[in-house]
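User: Can you fold this complex?
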Amino acid sequence: MTTATLSRPRAVQREEPEWLVWALIALMLVIGLIARSVTENRTQQWSGGGVSFNYPAEWVSFAPEGQLLQVGDPFSSPQFPTSVSVQEVPVADVGRNLTALGDVALAWSARRGRDLVAYRALRTEPVTVGGQEAVRLEYAYVAESVLGNTNAAPIVARAQDVLVQRGDSLTIITFAADSSQWDEALGIWRTILASLRGI
Amino acid sequence: MSTEICCVCDTPIEGAVRALGTRRFCERHYEHLTKDRKGLWLATIAFIVALLLFVLAMQVVGPMLTPALTGGRLVAAGILLAVIPASLWLGVFYLQDRVEPEPKRYVLGVALLSALLASAIGQPLINGFFRVNEWASASLLLKVIAAVFIVGAIQEGLKYAAVRHTVFRSREFDERVDGIIYGSAAGLGYATMLNIQYVIGNGGVDLGIGTMRIVLAALAHASFAGVTGYFLGRAKFEAMGPLWLPAGVALAALLNGAVTVALGSISRPGLHAMPFNGVAVAALVAALTFAFLFRTLRRANQVVLSAASAPSPSAVTG
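Assistant: Here's the predicted assembly.
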């Protein structure tokens, strides 16, 4: 009896090898990661207003109202989607006798203050776009839901304008998002800014 | 005394040694492994019908109750609803399985472990690491890839682990059909945790609509894990080859992904949500999946029984 017990085959010998299951799952996850990587890195180039940049390919175009471009992330807040827009305005429309870009930026900030509810300028700093001087203006304001439902609470939005002056015209690239999603959205904005070039 | 070891009870076989391929069994466990539980199929049908009745009842009661519940009470009611499908399954299953029931602690343990794995590993991986919701909706192809290769693989892999590393090696796992039973338990545990997270994440749910989502998830996950369970059930008692279990998990992941994407389109064909369509299709998928699994298993059992009744010195040694 003792001999039989000691010499009996080990139970593990009867089981199918399990590592193949986990190898298969690992392979499936790698395929999924590749699909994610390809998707997330897919961008679309836009050129206009003297600038060009890349934005995520899955972003959709909104009806631009007096703007050259307005695209947004369809998977962000439905009330206030994360978006990038571009508009071009004559410098003379922003203010009179403006020559220095810093003055143009101040005048533009004042105009934003008139157009947007509860506007607060948070930061203004010089940046470079394709070797050309530009100004970045960061601000917050209160916006209505884009869904147009009157019983919804207003949204606190945060945005950045990048102002690029080309002679008599000013190109403004605006990135805006619901303030509750601002920190997550900044990664995308940085990627867009990295691709921003003057043309 | 024979030096052969029964692969179920792991003890030296006294008397006749029964064989199925390279596996050896004692007389008792050989009889067990081919046991057909006819009542199990009826219990499964009763479970699906009971869930549909539950959905219909909540369509009447839900709209009356929802406005009266707010805040914590609405969340508590939602959590209660989330637990009902698994409780119903346990109830129906034990009603038909009174003669020789699976130990409750094993069935509950597998369901609980699967729920914990969902909460601790599965959903954090899917939503946190792979961030599936952020990129997989761009096209139908991406939806399917994410649903099968990420969501399906993770969820079915964890349900497989919940059975394989617990009850699979125990003596209670002594019938081929036990794979389907414990697999379904793992699926329902996983679905229950998903539903609880959904209820808490939304601060409660509309009791009518929420019930449909809860039932849909329960039916779907029980079916997918039932497939893995079928493969596990056969792998324990037959030498099915090294690719058998990977094939089972892959099939379950494929079913998980394909059915989830299809149910998403059926439940929300456009801007309007039509959740009952999803529930009806999920019930149909569950019924067809379990019908296929039980039928296939019964045929496999009949093959073994007919081989055993035929005189075959190589299959039975004394």
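The first strand of chain A starts at residue 43 and ends at 48. Helices of chain A lie at 2-7, 19-40, 91-94, 101-115, 182-195.
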